[in-house]
Each structure stands twice: as C-alpha cells, then as structure tokens.
Automatic annotation (TrEMBL):
It holds the Pfam family cNMP_binding. SUPFAM superfamilies: cAMP-binding domain-like. GO terms for biological process: regulation of intracellular pH; sodium ion import across plasma membrane. It is found in: Cell membrane. SMART domains: cNMP (SM00100). The keyword Transmembrane helix applies. Residues 708-814 form the Cyclic nucleotide-binding domain. GO terms for cellular component: plasma membrane. It comes from the Bacteria. It comes from Azospirillum griseum. PROSITE patterns: CNMP_BINDING_1, CNMP_BINDING_3. PANTHER family: SODIUM/HYDROGEN EXCHANGER (PTHR10110), SODIUM_HYDROGEN EXCHANGER 7 (PTHR10110:SF86). This is Cyclic nucleotide-binding domain-containing protein. The chain crosses the membrane at residues 6-25, 32-55, 75-92, 104-123, 129-150, 171-187, 207-225, 245-272, 292-313, 320-341, 361-380, 392-416.
Amino acid sequence: MHDIVIHVLGMAGLLALVSFLPPLAARFQLPFTVLLAAVGVALGAVIQTFAGMPGGGPFRDFVNSLAELDVSSEVLLHIFLPILLFETALAVDVRRLFDDIAPILLMAVVAVFVCTFAVGYALNLFTSMGLVACLLLGAIVASTDPAAVIGIFRDLGAPRRLTTLVEGESLLNDAAAIALFTLLLGMLTRKTDGGAMAATLEFLRDFVGGVVTGYICGRVVCMLVEPVRNQPMAEITLTVAQTYLVYVVAEHYVEASGVVAVVTSALVIGSVGRTRISPTTWGGLEHVWQQLGFWANSLIFLLTAILVPRLLAQAGLEEVGLVLVVTVAAFAARGLVLFGLLPLFSWAGLSQQVSHAYKTVMLWGGLRGAVSLTLALAVTENGRVPERVQSFIAVLVTGFVFFTLFVNGATLRSLIHLLKLDRLNPVERAMRNRALALSMENIRDRVSAVARTYEVDAAVTDVMLARYADRLQAIDRQRLKDPPLRDEDRVTIGLAILVNREEELYYAHFSEGVVSRAVMDLLAGRSGRLLDAVKTQGRNGYRAFEEPFIAFSPWMRGAAWLQRRFGIHAPLARRLSMRFEVLVAVRTVLRELLPFTRDRLARLLGEDVACELEGMLIGRLGIVEQALSALKLQYPDYATVLQGRYVGRAALRLEHADYRAMRAESIISQEVLSDLERELEGRRRALERLPQLDVRFDVGELIGRVPLFVGLPEERIAAFATLLHPRLALPGETIVRLGDRGDAMFFIASGAVEVLVPNLAEPVKLGTGDFFGEMALLTRQRRNADVRAMGYCQLLVLDEKDFRRLVQKDANLRTHFQAVAEARRQQPAQPVPAET
C-alpha cells in the first residue's frame, strides 16, 4: 500500500475511533482523557501483537498503518501543540484570569521550578543517573494537563474560581515547563554552558521574549482582521494561520519560547479580538477552535499512548519503585506550594484567600498528560542523549503520567463530591430556587398559551399544567426550608446581575452595528471593573464607580492641555467625540435596564431590592444625562451628527437583514445580494469613521459674545483678537488656584464658572460675558480663590504682559477693571455683572 494511503487510513481510523469515545466516557463517568489514554494503550498492545502479520483486510491494514506511522515529537510539537494551546487560551476569561493572577503565576512558574528540583534531587538520591538528567525528568513531569480536570469540573458544576485557577495554571505552566525543559536538554547535550545565573537569564529571556512576540502578533492579527471583516472563512483562517506563524517566529527567528508566544497571542485575541472580529463570526470561530482543540488533544494523546507498550517493555520492579519516588516527590512539591507558599500570598494581600478544599482538589487534580508524553518522546529521539538516559526518562515519565490519569483522574470526581464542592452554597441554592420558581411560572403560562393556540383538549392541558403546579409547590416547600437571604446579599446579587446584563446589552448593540468597536472596547473594560467593585464593596462600590468614570481621564486632560498650550486640536476633538458616543451608549443601556429591573429582578429578588436597584440606576442615569447635556449644549451640531450616525447604523442592519430575507425567499439572486452587500459595506465604513468635532475657536466670534467688547470698532476688536488666546475648560476643571501667582485674566465667552472664595458658604457663580482673574493682576498679589468650570467653558485668556500694555493704552478699560475688582472686594458674596 502506498505511503500516503497508509497515513490517510491510520489518521482517518483514529478520528473515527475518537468520535465514539465522548459518549462512552459520559456513560461510564470517566474523564475523556483517561479513556483516551486507555484506548491508546490498548491500541499499542494490539499493534505490538498483530502488526506485520501476513494477511489482508481493513483491520489488518489499519493496524499496519498505525505501526508504520512515523509520529515524531517534532510533528506533535509543531502541528498539534500550537492548536491545543491556542484553543485552551482562547476560551479563558482574561478578566477572571487576572483576578487571580498571583496564585496562578505561583502555580504556573514557581511550582514548576519546585517540582523540577524536588523530583530531580529525589531521583538523584535513589539512582546513579546524573543530576541534570534527573532535573530534566522533573521539568517534563512539572507540566499539568487541564483537559481531564476541567471536564470533571464542568460535569459536576464545580465553582468557577476553582476552574479558573486550574485552567490558568495549566495554561501557563506548559510554557514554563517547556522553556525549562529546553534549557536542561541543552545542558545535557552540551549545547549550553554556564551556571545557575546564566540558566536563569536564558529562561527569563525565552519567557519574556515569548510574551512580547505573542502580544505583538496578537495585536497585529487584530489589526489585519479589519480588511476581511464580515468574511467568516477569512477571519477564522487568519487566526489558524497566526497560531503556527507566531510559534515558528518565536522559536526560530526570535529564539524565544514558541509556547509562551502562542498562549499570549491567544489571550490577546480572546480579549481584544471579540470587538475586532465581526460579531457574526465570533461564535463560529469559537466552535471551529473547539473542534480543532478536540482533534488535537485526542490525536496527540492517542499517538503518544500507542507508544506506551513499547516504552514500558523493559520496565521492572526498580522502575516501579522509581515511579513511586517521582509520584511522592512531585505531589509533595505541589503540596508545599499550595499549602505553604500560597497562603503567604493571601497574607500579604496579593490575592484572595484560597480555601483548603480548593487547594486539596488542585493538589489531587495535578494530572499529567499529552505535553509530558510528547517531551519524553522528544528525549528518546535525540541522538545526543545517551540511550540509558532515554530509557530512564521514557519509562518514568510514562509510568507517572498514567498513574496520575488512572489513579488521580479516576478518583477526582469522588474527591470533589466528598468535599461538597459540587453543591451550591446557601445563597446560591436560594437563588436557584427563586429562579426556578420564576421559570416554572413563566413556562406554565406559555404552555397554557400554546395549548390554546393549537386547540389542545382541556384534559390534556390540565394534566400538563398540573405537573408544573406540583413542581412549583415542591420548589416553594424547598424555599421555605432555605435560610432567608440577607438584604445585603440580595442587593449584591442584583447588582452583579445588572452589571453582567449591562455588558450583554453593550455587546448586543455592538453586534447590531450601533455601538462602534472603540466604544465597545472601552465599555467592556469598564463593565469588568464595575463588576470587581461590586464583588469587593457591594452597593458602595457600585455607587462610587460611575462618577470617576464620567470624570475626565488623564488622557482627556492631556489633550486639553495640548490644545490650550500649543493649539493642537485633533487629540481633544477625538477624545470629546469618543466621550459623546460613550455617554449615549451608557444612557441607552441604563434606560433598557430599568424595565428589566422592575420586571425580572423584582420577581426574583423582591420589590424592596428592585426599588433600591432602580434608584441606583436612576442615579447613574442622572449623572450621565448631566454630562451629556453639558456636551450637547456646547456642541449642538455635533450631537445631531452623532445621533444621525446611530440611526444610520441601525438602518444598515435592518437593510442587511431584509436583503438576506429576500434572498432566502428567492426574490433576489445571490449576485444581486452580493452587489447590495458591497454597497452596504461602503456605507457602513463611512458611518464607522468617527465624525470630527471642531474645537478650534474663532477668536473674533468669541469676542463678540463678551458684552465688554460689544459695540467696539472693528479695528479695536481686531487688535484685541491678537492679544486674546482661546481656551476650552472641561467641566470640573480648576482654572485658577488659590495662592498661585496671577499671570493672566479670563473672559467667559460661553459657559459658567464658580469662584470658591475661602470662608464663603456658597461659591460665586459667573456666566457668559463675565471675567475673572483681574484682581491679582491689578494688586500684583497671589490668587485669592479657586475658580472651577461648571460645564464646558470657552474662555479668552489675556496674559499679564498684554493686560498691562492694554490698560496703559486704554484708561477707560483700566477704570472698568478696577471698579469691578473693588466691587467684588466689598461684596464677595454677589457676582458683579460686567459692564458694556
């Protein structure tokens, strides 16, 4: 049989076999990875027994094809491993990952080193093998495999935080273990020299180089996906291609860790790419990667497990004893980190406390899998490694991996049940019963409506409704046994629901094309921080969060400073444009949350809690409305443009849906649909561009707003225009500070300010046409009050030097300034209007 046919038969047969294993694993309540390993070993035994025997037929050819498959570690590392790593990292919730980044890094990096040295020195005590070879084995077995553990967690409904800790650890410790393995293998084969410091520096270089390479490649992909937006096949293909490209670039050009680079790029795409890749593609992309990950994990496990009978053929009692040494040392090292070092992080305030039950499951759930077997295979294929060392590593790694799979993996489900981690806590149980009761009521009403629509006999309908009534009564009886929820718990639960619902609504508006990508990025990050505030501080965190968000960021103030100091308008225009769109999006979603709170949350959490939640939403809405009104008053024309942009996006979405419906009904052909979609795409891109906000000022026009200058001859106004400099003050910005040297005075062309005079109960308010700051110039003294903008204020600034030149030439103007200053000194509580 031809070689290519051999390979096709072998791989196709393995995939067909794999397709039957998930239902078998579910039926026997075994982790899928454990069943894969068992089937792989069985296949290996079959191959050892029947391969090469005479005869024909599909089965004999299949066995021979597996025996002739040249599966090397290079194939596994370069073809299957990048896919497996990318799929795992893509599914990780980056926000939750960073919530527990300290314990995850401890387990992913420090634990790898502790395990490596614990196993290495323990083996060195019991064997004559060199220390480097023993340390190399320790690095190989330091990498944990999350596949079996996460599958059990999902089946049993284990706590989300426990799943995140295990996922994050196993995702990052693959990178650390492989980087350490590469370093030690180089030392063993004399490719590298140097002491511990040189080895540490090389490890850090590989790790940091991989992070930087992966981050850059991930961001580049997020930019490159723009030209192929709304082309699902192209977008998904780009992510597949970049997975291999980033691995090769990191390994062979940057000489860094390709594993770290792949993981980092996947985390970037998973967090940033959701708003770069078209919403319709994102769901399909996740499904494609889940399928690719399933194939990669299954094949890499089967192909390595097939080799187990051959690798263990020479194993004896001594090797069994050494496997026990590795097992004890590896789990002792893991226990030391979990129960010894991890509490120090909590004590130092670097992470939230991890319960003993969580740590016990993490200890026993430290299964080893495909990565360890692949690295052991790489050692056996390296001609520079002595055969004695090859056999030593292959046997012990294989024995340890299968011990963790068949002992730890098979009993992990029972351990989780014993520790009651598969049970809901009292608050979760009470919420479950409340939600279930609400669901039963809704379903009962809908069943009744369906029965009426289809004219089902009343007797049949009554039987069905009675079943739901019985279930509802059982739930009510259970609710009576539940301890009552504290008001604080109900409020916190409601706030968490609102924040999650708020983020979902933002993504819904984004998928409909109403919210732009840049705004979605900002709002998604904001929702994550708001949820963190709710988790840590409850209602106080929720209430305190919105005002800082509405306040101006350092970037906004920096843009305002550039505009004020150097006349650079573009950064401020972009920031104000973004602010406008963010405020509109937040206002829209908050209004949608109000009926959700009155209806759904009131029935779930009670009217009292719903009223409090509604009050918080109204408070936030008021802050947003105030900020939006101030911006609209300052830029009414821009507000009109932006609102038209929102409506235009929604209209394009409706158009596209209508065209698709007409194509489905064969009213238009595919060619017509393609032409219409091209036209829509052009209009969508035009709408996607953020409209420019003109913040440049016409000094002459602003001078005309100040009553002091009204009626002056044009030549005088032109002269003033050369002396006055325009400036935009942001709401809440302090324009003048108490105690500063007076270096300018200010005319208010539009807006209002408040003068905070010491020992004065109420601030003095000045509006359009007023001026301030003249007193310090006239008296040559320090400022005697703070002056703060109440909204967006367009100011005209007159520098001290120009002020003195101006009042020297114009006695009437000097007299006016002195009169106003004197009146303000005598009656500071009342603002003095400027004279014309």
